[in-house]
Specification:
This protein has 497 residues and is mostly helical. The chain is built from 21 helices and two strands. The model has no long low-confidence stretch (mean pLDDT 89).
Amino acid sequence: MTFGEPALTLVETLWLLSPELVLLLAALLILGLDALRPRWEGRWRAPHVALAGLGGALVATISLWGCHTRVLYVLSCDGFALVVKMFALVAVGLIVLLSDAYVRARSRHQGVGARSARLYALLLLSALAICLLGAAVNLIVIFLACECLSLASCILTGYLRDDRRSTEAAIKYFLYEATLSATMLYGMSWIYGATGSTDLSAIAEALGESESTLRPVVLPALILMMAGFASKVAAVPFHQWAPDAYEGAPTPITAFLSVGPTLAGFALLVRVSLTTLPAGLENLAVDWRVLLMALAVLTMTAGNLVALWQTNVKRLLAYSSIAQAGYALIGVVAASEAGVTAVLLHLAAYALANVGAFAVVIAVSEQGGSDDVEEYAGLSRRAPLLALALLLCLLSLGGIPPLAGFAGKLYLSYAAIGEGLPGPAVVGVINSVISLACYWKVIRAMYLVPAQTDERLTTSPALAVPLGVAVIGLFAIAVFANPLLTLLQAAAQTFFG
């Protein structure tokens, strides 16, 4: 169904905005019920409300499939935006389940449960920001949604107010994001001054008419704006916030930081690249893609090499996430329908693997009290299913078949080679081999190093559900890829018609 533009009725506008409105109402409901908590103790649970809100938003998003129109002139309801929303809602739903298990484990001795409702409200507001970023086609909305996501992420990072590492990580994250947000805003204002518009399509039209004249002015502005986008995906050299934030944040929030901002950042990179700088531009499009190619090679290489030296699992997964962002940049560089499809497929596989890995980290750290690799010694004997799940997640991140990570990297290489870019594809394959050495440290500890204790590790149902969904998803994406690829290709056609 396609609505005429701009003659949308109020009902049609509200329907097109229904996923975001459901998330906003659910977050406000949680905060309102939390204010009444002393009188309503035990009569409601914030995770249930959050999951209901995410489920309602997902149903609303699915109901919009087939729409292709502008909403309020600054948002686009199209296949790409809807797929980004679906990914974000499912991922945040799994993270809500991880958070529930984490809060239950810590509520007794650290008082986390007393203020847990605010955690779920912030997760819903973060999901709302990601949904807006997936649909934004105006620089002003992009900046405002980025700020909403950054502020919510900073608060979530410092959620353990009595933990020095958590508050320190939040302060570092906030200062770094504030600096890069100012840089991004300056670049956006520069582009507005050069083209006279903040709409992505209007900017593309202005550049197409006067590319040779505007190129010296716009290229530095694009670099400044790219710095802000790159910080969201933790691309090198804008990655410094990630290791400290991953280590200091509560582990479910670490899982969110590895998935949410990354998904939002790549949604921005894809839309801005393909809308503002289409392939028809002779010079600016080439300049932009050369910069992204260099960023991709640097990111995946630096991420994997630094990960080799990590002894803390959360920091190791932080550098692993940096490297995974480098792989995904290959698809953005390809700037083709196959490239966009490959980026989305890779992000789906990466999100499932990271959620599964951090579910195991929660189980181990809550009973062992440490995130060091040594804590995983003998895990295959203390908790065979947990060890197997973490093994599968790490192998998927390493690109080993028949797991989803292999399918994602295979399609990224195919997209790059199809556009005459074998270099990034070769570097990606080499880095995939290097990454296996990073993950081998954890795998070796689980299966080859004797356990320090014979105490069995137990897994709560709240933790087993997202872990099971993640592991099943890793096989389902690889084995039954055709239905998902059909959906992703339809999303990619948003830019290629």
